Write a sequence for this structure.
């Protein structure tokens, strides 16, 4: 009877535990959950845990297999790298055989191969020791899971069957009791509540014994699983410790090899190889050899007079279109060229920007010492003979401003001082085909000068200076009338300009008549100047060819008509 009470209490406790089993921790009520009707296989919890352990060990196996592959690949690549160093050197006797750079490269090759061997050893150790050990551990986990399934799993199945049979008998007991209370005459011997209760009591005892056996088996399995899991952790720790030990050995060995290479490389004197190379070679340049000076180089025609400049320095040349002067470096050569350079340094300006062949040119007269600017003109002629007005200063001025019918071009040059200009002019006149000189000015009086003074010209020199500056009254009148006036000389030269009348005829006022008288006077004065120029040319021809009676007669006639003085090549004579 007491046993029946204890069984009923156990049954009630199991029912109460099943109601609040969701709020109780599995680790705190494993036995209670094992006998709960909704959890008939408590061994599944242990099986799930060690299945997770099996997956972890598998990942660790894959990890170490990857490390082994890496180490093996490093070993292969380091072996290839060692083959890059080709010793002894193929360059022959360029380097020392011993005690030099070649010995260091021997060490690099050998130690690189040693490093490759170290990595290969680590790869083999990981594959043969760590990976195989972990694979055995995984096999043990599988065996432990199978043991749990065989032992505890069967007992859990038996408990489930006993519980189902107990529930059936308890249901039959309730049915028999109900029949007894409702229809007592219909109760059979098997349906007697007493007999049914005895059957329930015996079944519950059997169920409890089966559950107790399951509980004992679970306790043993839990204890063994705890110990087995501890062994798993220790096995993993041992595998990692083995890897760390071999890895440390590898790192220390490789580091020592590289340090040894670094010490060998640092111990080599930087100049040892060069000293040995310089001692062996006989074709190296002696450091005591002096540098060559291009100034002392002698070559044919170096001292020929034609290669040296006759004159060099700075001059200003008037631009054709802008009418402005630009200063450049000029060189006058013995060959008769006047070269213009951008700089006086031959390295910066190797080629001339402008060249003028003087033997084909006519040199105009220089400006006077009292002039405002120090300049002279050069006219280019195709024949270089200066025939038929080719050397006249009037045509030269026409060429400078782009007017007239000259056969060549003309250039205006200006110097910084009168002395500098005369030096250039004297050197250039020795190379030109012919040159012109200005005659001495004569005092003149008459209606022309009166007319000039009447229109505001105080003197001839002052009027000519205004023409040089380009702001004279004649130029303004010239623009109004449509006529073109060409300036023949500077203020220090007494030549007249040429005039071409405009296309329209206009009425002349008193002021215009005065201007007309001025122009006529200038034309007369220009005629006298041309006569004097002819006298100068005739003298040059007399000096060159001895002259002729006709030439002397024409010169005397021109001198008589001009009544002036001419100069030829710097020599003056009065007629």
């Amino acid at each position: 009877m007491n046993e029946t009470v204890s069984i009923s209490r156990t049954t009630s406790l199991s029912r109460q535990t099943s109601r609040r089993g969701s709020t109780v921790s599995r680790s705190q009520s494993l036995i209670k959950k094992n006998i709960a009707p909704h959890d008939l296989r408590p061994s599944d919890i242990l099986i799930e845990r060690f299945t997770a352990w099996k997956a972890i060990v598998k990942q660790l196996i894959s990890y170490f297999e990857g490390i082994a592959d890496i180490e093996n690949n490093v070993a292969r690549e380091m072996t290839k790298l060692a083959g890059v160093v080709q010793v002894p050197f193929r360059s022959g006797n360029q380097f020392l055989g011993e005690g030099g750079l070649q010995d260091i490269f021997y060490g690099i090759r050998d130690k690189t191969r040693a490093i490759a061997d170290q990595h290969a050893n680590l790869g083999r150790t990981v594959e043969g020791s760590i990976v195989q050990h972990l694979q055995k551990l995984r096999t043990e986990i599988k065996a432990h899971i199978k043991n749990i399934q065989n032992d505890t799993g069967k007992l859990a199945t038996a408990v489930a069957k006993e519980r189902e049979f107990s529930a059936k008998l308890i249901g039959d007991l309730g049915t028999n009791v109900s029949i007894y209370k409702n229809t007592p005459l219909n109760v059979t011997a098997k349906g007697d509540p007493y007999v049914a209760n005895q059957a329930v009591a015996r079944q519950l005892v059997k169920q409890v014994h089966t559950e107790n056996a399951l509980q004992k088996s679970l306790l043993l399995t839990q204890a063994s699983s705890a110990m087995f899991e501890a062994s798993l952790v220790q096995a993993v720790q041992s595998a990692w410790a083995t890897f760390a030990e071999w890895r440390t050995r590898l790192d220390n060995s490789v580091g020592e090899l590289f340090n040894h290479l670094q010490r060998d490389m640092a111990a080599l004197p930087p100049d040892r190889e060069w000293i040995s190379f310089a001692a062996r070679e006989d074709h190296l340049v002696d450091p005591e050899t002096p540098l060559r000076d291009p100034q002392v180089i002698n070559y044919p025609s170096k001292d020929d007079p034609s290669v040296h400049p006759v004159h060099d320095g700075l001059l200003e040349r008037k631009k054709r279109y802008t009418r402005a002067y630009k200063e450049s470096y000029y060189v006058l050569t013995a060959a008769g060229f006047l070269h213009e350079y951008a700089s006086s340094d031959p390295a910066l300006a190797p080629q001339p920007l402008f060249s003028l062949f003087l033997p084909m040119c006519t040199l105009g007269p220089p400006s006077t010492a009292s002039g405002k600017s120090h300049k002279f003109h050069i006219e280019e002629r195709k024949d270089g003979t200066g025939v038929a007005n080719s050397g006249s200063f009037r045509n030269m001025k026409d060429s400078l401003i782009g007017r007239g019918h000259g056969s060549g071009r003309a250039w205006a040059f200006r110097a910084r001082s009168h002395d500098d200009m005369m030096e250039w002019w004297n050197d250039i006149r020795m190379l030109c085909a012919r040159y012109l000189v200005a005659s001495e000015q004569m005092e003149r009086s008459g209606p022309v000068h009166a007319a000039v003074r009447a229109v505001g010209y105080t003197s001839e020199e002052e009027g000519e200076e205004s023409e040089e500056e380009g702001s004279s009254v004649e130029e303004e009148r010239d623009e109004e009338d449509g006529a073109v006036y060409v300036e023949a000389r500077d203020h220090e030269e007494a030549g007249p300009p040429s005039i071409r009348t405009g296309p329209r005829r206009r009425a002349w006022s008193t002021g215009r008549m005065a201007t007309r008288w001025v122009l006529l006077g200038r034309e007369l004065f220009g005629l006298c100047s041309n006569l004097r120029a002819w006298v100068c040319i005739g003298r040059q021809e007399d000096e060159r060819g001895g002259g002729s009676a006709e030439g002397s007669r024409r010169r005397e006639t021109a001198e008589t008509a001009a009544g002036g003085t001419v100069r030829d090549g710097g020599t003056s004579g009065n007629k």
